[in-house]
TrEMBL record:
Belongs to the glycosyl hydrolase 1 family. It comes from the Eukaryota. It comes from Camellia sinensis. GO terms for molecular function: beta-glucosidase activity. This is Beta-glucosidase.
Length: 467
């Protein structure tokens, strides 16, 4: 990966927010402590030691301060606040105290909290009672939980993200604790529909009862990739549009225009739920900003399926084949520890411009962007700390952030994923996106990587060099 132009903080508007991001499930640990209820994704953390943010949050706030980071995105674990997921069953005061202490600690250190309300950890009780996201009951329970958060923390929290990566949760997440042998092909679309309604309902609660006095802002964090047509054929271009629609347009189109993308409606027909007029009104415009999680991009061409062997399901429904290379040349270098990420910073620029042009120039924060390194016992800590490749990754992506700003994209901030080498869904601790290495053999001690000094210098403006 070649290093593009070196950048400095002064290349960005003075009110542009630089931050670092994380999530509760991936960092807190302590799934059975402090009265927390279980979540549907807990089996990822049950047998592993994780990184103990629940106990070490004060040290971690110091890590942030040490980098001169002024914004921290973290998530609240719904089952830590409301163990059964239902407000009427009662709140867990120990959980409330934990997040109050964390927020106070951040604010006391001059760090603004960006709070995600739902980052994959659905209370198990809701899955057991009504299959979680597959039921419209989810909308009311999520709204009550969100409202509790606004009421309890909104005096200090001015940036709310309702839901993280709804596409990931709708496609992979809602069934985590269930085995569904012949999963109906409607399920992801029902789950997504309820996510959209829950998001919009929480935004309404915030706008009706809290925003006028608390004066914060609220949005959602979607995942996006840039899809490049493999060749010049219109079919490849149409495939790129369908891939976008099924990943990101699925959520942004309703939020901006009140309805699903045309391609989804045309392909899915009655497998796609519809919004009532009242719902449409609630959903349309239900954001103050769009959060964008960007890591990688793909080429596209149509997926050819003969009419007899078309198994319906989210993947095939799109009729898209995504590819990582063209004529044998990869779209970008494969990231060190993760075969899903091919480094393509230009894609971030394309996505940002597309958001501006196709979605009425919304306010945007990049809520995640980061680089995974391989982790295993044969890699010495000293080696893991030399993460020049992450510095290059961040610099190169920031080049496109700056380009987007010069093109009039209404971009207000950029968050690096992640503060620590934390638990990655599906990969555990075999990869690390962290700016800090966490030593599992030495009381989870945090070791700053080289990227920490780079980021600190960048934010402080004292140097733009990565060496
Ligand atoms: C997106 C998710 O929000 C986060 O939980 C995950 O760790 C990163 N991407 C990296 O895969």
């Amino acid at each position: 990966m070649a290093l593009m132009k070196e950048l400095a903080r002064s290349d960005f508007p003075s009110d542009f927010k630089f931050g670092v991001a994380s999530s509760a499930l991936q960092t807190e640990s302590a799934p059975h402590e402090g009265g927390r209820g279980s979540s549907t994704w807990d089996y990822f953390i049950e047998d592993t030691p994780a990184v103990q943010f629940y106990h070490k949050y004060k040290d971690d706030v110091q890590c942030l301060k040490n980098m001169n980071i002024e914004n921290y995105r973290f998530s609240i674990a719904w089952p830590r606040l409301i163990p059964t997921g239902k407000l009427s069953d009662g709140v867990n005061q120990t959980g409330i105290d934990f997040y109050n202490n964390l927020i106070d600690e951040l604010v006391a250190n001059g760090i603004e909290p960006f709070v995600t309300l739902f980052h994959f950890d659905l209370p198990s009780a809701l899955q057991e009672e009504y299959h979680g996201l597959l039921s419209s009951n989810f909308v009311e329970d999520f709204t009550n939980y969100a409202d509790l958060c606004f009421k309890t923390f909104g005096d200090r929290v001015k940036h709310w993200i309702t839901i993280n990566e709804p596409q990931v949760f709708a496609v992979y997440g809602y069934k985590m604790s269930l085995s569904i042998p012949d999963e109906p092909s409607t399920h992801p679309y029902i789950a997504a529909h309820n996510i959209i309604l829950a998001h919009a309902s929480a935004v309404k609660a915030y706008r009706d009862s809290h925003q006028p006095t608390q004066k914060g802002e609220i949005g959602i964090s979607v995942s996006a990739q840039w899809f490049l047509p493999l060749g010049v054929m219109p079919a490849d271009k149409h495939a790129a549009q369908r891939a976008w629609d099924f990943m990101t347009g699925w959520f942004l189109d309703p939020l901006v225009s009140g309805d699903y993308p045309f391609n989804m409606k045309a392909i899915l027909r009655d497998r796609l739920p519809t919004f009532t007029e009242e719902q449409e009104e609630m959903v349309k415009g239900s954001f103050d900003f769009i959060g964008l999680n960007y890591y990688t991009s793909r080429y596209t061409k149509p997926l050819k399926l003969s009419s007899n062997d078309v198994p319906t399901g989210y993947e095939n429904d799109q009729y898209v084949q995504t590819l990582t290379e063209k004529n044998g040349v990869p779209i970008g270098e494969q990231a060190g520890g993760f075969d899903a990420i091919f480094v393509y910073p230009e894609g971030l620029g394309e996505v940002l411009l597309h958001l501006k042009l196709a979605y009425n120039n919304p306010t945007i924060y990049i809520t995640e962007n980061g680089y995974p390194q391989k982790r295993n016992s044969s890699i010495a800590i000293e080696t893991a700390l030399q993460d020049d490749v992450r510095i290059e990754f961040l610099q190169n992506h920031l080049t496109y952030v700056r380009k987007a700003l010069s093109e009039g994209v209404n971009l207000k901030g950029y968050f690096v994923w992640s503060l620590l080498d934390n638990m990655e869904m599906g990969s555990g601790y075999t990869i690390g996106f962290g700016l800090h290495y966490v030593d599992h053999d030495d009381d989870f001690k945090r070791h700053p990587k080289k990227s920490v000094s780079w980021l600190k210098n960048f934010i402080t403006g004292s140097s733009s060099s990565s060496s």
